[in-house]
Amino acid sequence: xxxxxxxxxxxxxxxxxxxxxxxxxxxxxxxxxxxxxxxxxxxxxxxxxxxxxxxxxxxxxxxxxxxxxxxxxxxxxxxxxxxxxxxxxxxxxxxxxxxxxxxxxxxxxxxxxxxxxxxxxxxxxxxxxxxxxxxxxxxxxxxxxxxxxxxxxxxxxxxxxxxxxxxxxxxxxxxxxxxxxxxxxxxxxxxxxxxxxxxxxxxxxxxxxxxxxxxxxxxxxxxxxxxxxxxxxxxxxxxxxxxxxxxxxxxxxxxxxxxxxxxxxxxxxxxxxxxxxxxxxxxxxxxxxxxxxxxxxxxxxxxxxxxxxxxxxxxxxxxxxxxxxxxxxxxxxxxxxxxxxxxxxxxxxxxxxxxxxxxxx
Length: 361
Fold this sequence. Notes:
Elements lengths: L1 H23 L9 H11 L13 H16 L6 E2 L3 H18 L3 H9 L4 H21 L8 E2 L2 H20 L18 H18 L3 H11 L3 H20 L16 H18 L3 H9 L3 H19 L11 H20 L2 H15 L1
Antiparallel strand pairs: 1-2
């Protein structure tokens, strides 16, 4: 019971902070969005040139460094990696393509619902279906194989990179891009956003907050521990939005969102499916990266590259709706995720064994 109180408290704090970040300058319903913020960082580094989404979001750096600081202090910093790195990278790309079809990660999906965006209901339905597909492969023995203990220095690299990103954000050299309009220009003051990320990173590390894990555990084990955290996020985001006047119920005219139900659904199917195979949602991957998990670092790198691909090849949706290129990409990525699930499960091993027995007979 004490553990559940802890994750409900974490969810409440995340919800309150998300609304306050909007008050301080972030786009409405985007106090936190891992996919959107990684997309902005990719743009800030010049990996894509979509001028309206370029900014080094300090919330991301705060999440990683908060998880790193608390993991080291609690002696939970454990450096491991080497588990199917390129498959993880590829799945990271597909998670981002699905999220940018919907225009939000699982966390923003909940924040959007708390702001009255009913398109998030369609996204949640797709997300649950995607998690169900992932569970199907887990039940068939899906595995990305074991990870291995690595030198401690390996685990310090990613936190150091995030410190360097903060330095680049503060110093603002000419080679870093900053949006002059659009969502990228809308942001909370640097140190407020960084502090918010640090707080959420610490709390998420302690409670293992994960939207994918919440729904997965509910389906597999009838365990509501992780899910209760996201219910708390929704409740406190809803209260905060109502109190501050941001609440706007409906499908049309929602901030940084579109109302194409089919592709909102399919985008989150892809995001949920790939996230289950990875073992956690985008936010969880950042937290694990801060704990020394280099497999999660590879996944985050895949998501950043995925964001660049989305904007360089016209895959990302806009408030006008999805693009034809994005629709094709979601279908192709769904096939890729299905093949990854199949070839890394016991299904194919059992089939090969049967064929071998037939030949021997």
